[in-house]
Amino acid sequence: MRYNEKELQALSRQPAEMAAELGMRGPKKGSVLKRRLVKLVVNFLFYFRTDEAEPVGALLLERCRVIREEPSAFSISFIEDPERKYHFECSSEEQCQEWMEALRRASYEFMRRSLVFYRNEIRKVTGKDPLEQFGISEEARFQLSGLQA
Amino acid sequence: MKLNERSLAFYATCDAPVDNAGFLYKKGGRHAAYHRRWFVLRGNMLFYFEDAASREPVGVIILEGCTVELVEAAEEFAFAVRFAGTRARTYVLAAESQAAMEGWVKALSRASFDYLRLVVRELEQQLAAVRGGGGMALPQPQSLPQPPSLPSAPAPVPFLPSAPAPVPALPQPRRPSALPPKENGCAVWSTEATFRPGPEPPPPPPRRRASAPHGPLDVAPFTRLHECYGQEIRALRSQWLSSRVQP
User: Fold this and answer.
1) Nearest residue on chain A to B143, judged by CA atoms?
2) What ipTM is given for this predicted complex?
3) Statement: the pTM of the whole predicted model exceeds 0.80
4) What is the pLDDT of residues B120-159, one digit of tens each?
5) Residues facing residue A78 across a β-bridge
6) Residue ranges of E strands in chain A
7) Those residues with Cβ within 8 angstroms of residue B152's Cβ, 6 or more apart along the chain or in another chain
8) Which letter does DSSP use for residue B50 in this model?
9) I need a surface site. Which of A99, A106, B64, B147 has the fewest CB within 10 A?
């Protein structure tokens, strides 16, 4: 699939939500644990060799599952192939929790659901649609009906 | 760069809400011909397929950080998706009608994750404000996010446009002591609480956030903010101008 790699590289240079050096193991059988600088930017997880400016790779975090692994580790897999796991090792329990929380919230789809949730809650309390002030209350992407059941 | 393309392809064709879909003509390159492709906008990803029935996308345009403008082109109903940076590619696309073009320009202008995140944060704050503060436990619909518990923890007020502005950390008051923002590469934002007294905050003027605290914030966010509004205005203005010249 073609994609605009330059823009993705530029994105990897943006300030991150979270960035840390973690141990990382790819999904292929026999992969070895490697030290990587892992950086969360919007809904992408970039991973760099610790001394390089360009990322080795990126993971789009839509429709993924973040699972706790032992010890102080977590894995990311994708809905269509749950056995294929990207494995990350943290330096502490706390760091592991932080990353898992951040990654769970890092998808566009999660954000969208949050928006719909808050919109409804505010509407319930105030009787008004908070999106009207932004002029986006009719946007298809923010409608409740657009949500997956 | 490696990319989880297989997952991307699944995301392209899954049941998640589609934010826009339709045929567009895509210019192959600077001097190339237009190809008619089936486009699907989902989140901040614009996928394109050979046709509506294809199982796998030909490609994807990652939209984060882009601006959308109308363009002068031989092709009618043309618009461009532009990225910052030298030698960045500009994607010239053309719709099949005025209405379709306007729909696409609007949808693409608001497609960034950053924009969505801004709106969500804004609403989080508003909800906190209308509830008047104090840790209220809200009912938890199953797959929806846990609303942050209300504050003694101050709420950051960013209202930032799309990258490359520095991105503040997500408000996570429930987390145990977080790493200092600098280690995470996050900008430190004002932590002034912005809770307004009274049952209902006065609605701000459209698209202008008068209440953003400016304490320790430096100048950069304002220019980014300005540019963000500018994007929308430019797009709307172009629309208006072009609709004026049409007979």
Assistant:
1) A113
2) 0.92
3) no
4) 999 999 999 988 754 444 443 433 443 443 333 333 333 3
5) A64, A81
6) 2-3, 18-25, 34-41, 44-49, 57-60, 64-69, 73-78, 81-89
7) none
8) S
9) B147
